Each structure stands twice: as C-alpha cells, then as structure tokens.
Amino acid sequence: MKSNLFFILLTVLALVVVSCKTSFESQVYDFQLIIDSNTYDENEIKELISESKMKTIVLKNDSVLEFRKRHGGLGSLITIEYTLVDNEIVIDSTDVTGRYIPELSGIHFLYSRDSLVNRQTNEKYYNQKFVKKTERKH
Q: What superkingdom heads the lineage (predicted)?
C-alpha cells in the first residue's frame, strides 16, 4: 500500500514539474538609429530620421517573437518563431500561420539582455528596460 501511494505521489510530482512552463518575461527591443553628427549636416539628419522606420522586436516567450514596423501612420506586425542557440537568435523563415516572410528569412541576432544586434546589417535594438535605467542614471 505504501509503495502504491509513493508511486502515485511521485507520478503526480513528475507531471507537475513537467507541465510547469518557465517564467519568461516579455522583452521589448527598439531599433535605435545611430547618426554620426560629424558626417551629416542638420538637414540630412532630419531627412534620415524622417525616412527611418520605427522597428520593435518583442520576445513574447522562449520561442515566439513579434516584429513590429511602423512607417508614418502605417504599421505591420509579424508573429514568428525563433530559436536561441549560443546567444544567437535564429528567426524562422515562415510566420506562425505558415506564410513565408522574405524580409526576416535567415536573419540572425546576437542576443543579450540589453540589446539585439542584426548580424547582417549591424542594426542595434536596445531593450526598453535597459534604456530607461540608463536614462534615470543621467
């Protein structure tokens, strides 16, 4: 009787442990346009800023991210799966509905808690929490 009770308790404990998900907190990364003021004059800087797209990457959980892009008053949202391998995010070529997304296909990001760096274009996306912390310090 004791061995049956012990087996049932052990089985329930194993099911609870296996079914628990990790506590993944969403992380929001914003693209930051870096402009060298020594290279561009004021009008060129204004033009670069007005032409740049506002891009955001939201890591929703440990395998799904949202890629948000806004240009003027229009925007788009793509939900896509990714894998994290050795501090590198590898984005799938299809979104969660199975549509092929050419602009995100084959993109790799170097991942850290404070930033994402696109390996192909060297675009930098900074974690909103990190940016807010550094702004408070200054």
A: Bacteria
How many C-beta neighbours within 10 Å does residue 107 have? Answer: 20
8-state DSSP, 53: P
Whether the full predicted model's pTM is greater than 0.85, yes or no, is no
Q: What is the pLDDT of residues 84-101, one digit of tens each?
A: 999 999 999 898 899 998
Tokens of 59: 């890591």
What span, in angstroms and rounded, lies between the C-alpha atoms of 104 and 124? 15
HEC readout, the chain = CHHHHHHHHHHHHHHHHHHCCCCCCCEEEEECCCCCCCCCCHHHHHHHHHHCCEEEEEECCCCEEEEEEEECCEEEEEEEEEEEECCEEEEEEEECCCCECCCCCCCEEEECCCEEEECCCCCEEEEHHHHHHHHHHC
DSSP string, 15-31: HHHHHPPP-PPPEEEEE
Amino acid at 60: K
